[in-house]
Structures are given as structure tokens and as C-alpha cells.
Amino acid sequence: MPERIYNFSPGPATLPYPVLQEAASDIVNFHDKGIGLIELSHRSKEFMAVAEETELLIRELLQVPDNYKVLFLQGGASSQFFMIPMNLLGNGKKGTYINTGTWSKKAIKEAKLFGDIDVAYSSENATFNHVPNDEEYTVDSASEYLYFVSNNTIYGTQFARMPNADTMLVSDMSSDILSRPVDVSRFGIIFAGAQKNMGPAGVTVVIIRDDLLDRSPVDVPTMLRYKTHADKGSMFNTPPCFAIYCVGRVMNWLRKQGGIAAMETINRRKAEMLYKAIDSTDFFRGHAKKDSRSLMNITFNLPTPELEAQFISEAATAGFDGLKGHRSIGGCRASIYNAFPEEGVVKLVDFMADFAKKNG
Ligand SMILES: *Cc1c(COP(=O)(O)O)cnc(C)c1O
Predict the structure, then answer these.
(1) Residue 103, number of CB atoms within 10 A of its CB
(2) Rounded CA gap, 356 and 188, in Å?
(3) Strands 6-7 vs 320-321: parallel, antiparallel or unpaired
(4) Which of 107, 188, 191, 291 could form a disulfide with 80 if both were Cys (CB 3.0 to 4.6 A apart)?
(5) Closest ligand 1 atom to the C-alpha of 193?
């Protein structure tokens, strides 16, 4: 394995090295068939088997019940912001949203084009430094669904427990899908752009309950109806073949790590190391309130913006890439998804202690 930098990028993000190697080889010559992976027809038996395996592995890892479809769509996670309300609302129907950051705000804006939207809770006036617990909001019983972002990639907050509402849950899990077990049966729709925790950019995985497929208003265009893609096994048109293949390889890797429960243990260990480093000195300050802290994106500040810039620059020289916080909040952010190696966290923690000693 060549010398690799530690890539803390929020997404596209680091991938398991064995997956990169396998993909590099399969791109040139897929399973010794004399044809490259990205040259295969999406309707060839070779590619159909790839797509099927990817779906089966997702089903197995997340224990997706039989009455759910797993779809591979395009347009990014952002296209789900309008597809969900377009297909589930309309005709004055109501949707309830929890506003915990940039991604939920964007989803709320789109949803307002299609339905009567109730924002039951917002942490915006606290710079999105927390997510609510169940007692802090109520969901109108007339709502078709309760929408929330399970992990707020930019602000570094996460729902430690999923909302406990009677209403059907819909969740954007782009940045924490497969990082911990979830009870899929409580959700109507779970979706995630692959480029954080599942693979490369280019595919969005949508897990949708069967009965929702028939709810779309008649004026929804063919390509934007979930049923179109469900009926054709995500092959209504050309799917993002390479991205689907990579997701499959990442799922295979994840299974070899022991599955999602084993991964959660490792994720907790990695995050705890970083939060401990942040809490052990006044030099670093965590952005998220403690009970809302994300296991995936660790956001923190240094005493001044100048020190933050110096920290990010010296870290890059030392082989730690992608630590700059999102432009909307500044500061620093370490994204440590499933594929981020634990030893990279150990080394960053050492680097942080050293930096604080020299500059604190
Ligand atoms: C990155 C991200 C998105 C946007 O994903 P795209 O695929 O770029 O549209 C949406 N939601 C969350 C939580 C994200 O982290």
C-alpha cells in the first residue's frame, strides 16, 4: 500500500483501500472477462449481478424488511429534497420538518413548493449546535411524515436516538447511514448520497416502503416517481453503474469488518478519542452540545481564526487533509466515517495535543 494521507474530508470521503484496489483492477478488466467494468452494458448479466449483489448486501447489513424497496437514483441526495414532498404531499397535504442545519433548511425550502409544511423545531438561533429531544416538539397528527436529518454533516450534530413519533419517519441519512444499526421499519423513506459513508459520488440510495409507491399525484413526471424506478429495479434508464459497483464493494468490506454493530463500536471509539482531546483543554472548543455530538463529523474551534488557519495548514503538512470546517460555520471539522482508519484518529489526537502545547 502506498503512503496515504489521512483524508478527513466530509465527502466525497475516504474509502477502504482494498476497495480502491479492486475497483482499479475491475475498471480495466472485469473478473477476467476481457472487458472493463465501466464498459459493461447495464443490462448485461455481469452488471445485473453487480447491482443485485449491491442491493442484497445493503438489505442484509441494514436488515431492510421485505416490504421495502432499495433504489439507486441520481441527482444527489439534494434531489430527494423535492422528490419526497412531490411524491408524498400535494393537494394540501402536510409534512412536518425538524430544522437542524443547512441540509434540513434546503429540504424545507423545496417541500414548501409541494405541501403545507410545519417546522416543528429549529436550532437555527443556536447556530445549529444541537438536535432536539422528543419532549421539545410536537408533530401535528395530520402530517404525512416527520422529516429529519439524522446526522448534520456541517454542524457536527447527530440524533443519538431516532425521534419517537407516531408519524411515519423520513430521514436524510447521507452522512451516517450504515454507521450504526437502525430499525428501518419505523421509516417510510431513508435516503443517502453515497459519497460520505457508502462509496463515490454519483448514486443516491433510497429505501422506501412499498405502499408509498402508489401515492404520487398524477402530474409527477415519470423519472421523478419512485414507482418508475421500483418497477424496473433501478434500471428504468441507465443507472450510475460505477457508483453502484463501488457501493457493493464497500458493503462487502463492511460485512468483513463484522457489519454495522461492529462498525458502531469502532465509530464510538474513534469519536470518543477526538472529543476527549477537545475536552481535555480550553484550547479546543467543541461546536456541538455534548448530548448532540456526532460520531461522524467532529466540529471544533481554536481560540482564534488565525490559530485555526495555522492548525489546518500545519496539519495538512503533517499528512492530515480536509480538516477545514464548512464555510458556513468556519472552524475545524474532522469527518471520520466508517472507512476512516482508527490509527488516523490516534495520530490526529497526538498532533492536536502537540499543537495546543506549542500555541496555547
Ligand atoms: C452531503 C449531504 C447532502 C447533499 O448531498 P448531494 O448528494 O451533494 O446532493 C444532503 N444531506 C446531507 C446530510 C449531506 O451530508
Answers:
(1) 21
(2) 46
(3) parallel
(4) 191
(5) 7
Has 109 been annotated as catalytic? Answer: no
Long-range contacts, stretch 170-175, CB < 8 angstroms, 24+ apart: 170/84, 170/88, 170/145, 170/146, 171/147, 172/77, 172/80, 172/103, 172/104, 172/107, 172/147, 172/148, 174/11, 174/77, 174/103, 174/149, 175/10, 175/11, 175/151, 175/296, 175/297, 175/335, 175/337
Each residue's pLDDT tens digit, 13-45: 999 999 999 999 999 999 999 999 999 999 999
pLDDT in tens, 266-303: 999 999 999 999 999 999 999 999 999 999 999 999 99
CA–CA dist 194, 80 (Å, integer): 13
As for ligand 1, residues whose beta carbon falls within 6 Å of it are 11, 76-78, 103, 149, 153, 172, 174-175, 193, 196
Residues 174, 274: one domain? no
Is 176 a member of any domain?
yes
pTM given for the model: 0.98
Among 256, 274, 302, which residue terminates a domain?
A: 256
- Cα 310 to its chain centre, rounded Å, is 29
The range of the structural domain enclosing residue 160 comes to 20-256
Say if residue 197 is in the same domain as residue 345: no
